[in-house]
Amino acid sequence: MKNLSSTLSVWPSQQPRPAILVVEDQIIIATAMHDSLIELGADVVGPCLTLQSALGVAASAKIDAAVLDVWLNGELSYPVADLLVQRRIPFLFTSSVNVDREPPQFHHFPRLLKPFSDEELRSALSALWTPPRTVPPTAPFAA
Asked: Does the keyword Phosphoprotein apply (predicted)?
């Protein structure tokens, strides 16, 4: 959380402090990500530590982007990703799981492999708003 060079460089112009949903089941990682995002100038929603809490927030909260851990206490976060796609909210995955083990419809979404640095998080989030930014269409995840 130290020596972050700047706030995120490409916030949407209409939202000076974007609300970023953090979905992460490991409290140490969730707290570190929260602190890093606050330092970068974001408002943090969550962290959501379980799939059920993440689904509730993703369905209704006013958020501008999300960071989703793929595995939440043994459950996959892909249903949360489906909700975000439906709401056209950009997001990225974090995981230590190789992309080859994920459903193909999610291969084209941005991801950070754990462990990642603050600078990698900043860069990945900034890229979510770099034109052209679209949320790729995907079929809902079938568990």
From this structure: yes
Angle between helices 118-128 and 27-39 (to 10 degrees): 70
The single-letter DSSP state of residue 17 is: S
**H runs (alpha helix) in the chain:** 27-39, 51-60, 78-87, 118-128
pLDDT digits (tens, 9 = 90+) for 49-101: 999 999 999 999 999 999 999 999 999 999 999 999 999 999 999 988 666 67
Only one residue has tokens 């492999």, namely 113
Spatial separation of the C-alpha atoms in residues 124 and 106, rounded to whole Å: 16
CA atoms within 13 A on the CB side of 99: 12
CB neighbours of residue 32 within 10 Å: 15
- The CATH number that domain 17-127 falls under is 3.40.50.2300
Three-class SS state of 104: helix
Band of the pLDDT at 138, cuts 50, 70, 90?
A: low
Q: What is the rounded radius of gyration, in angstroms, for the C-alpha atoms of the chain?
A: 14
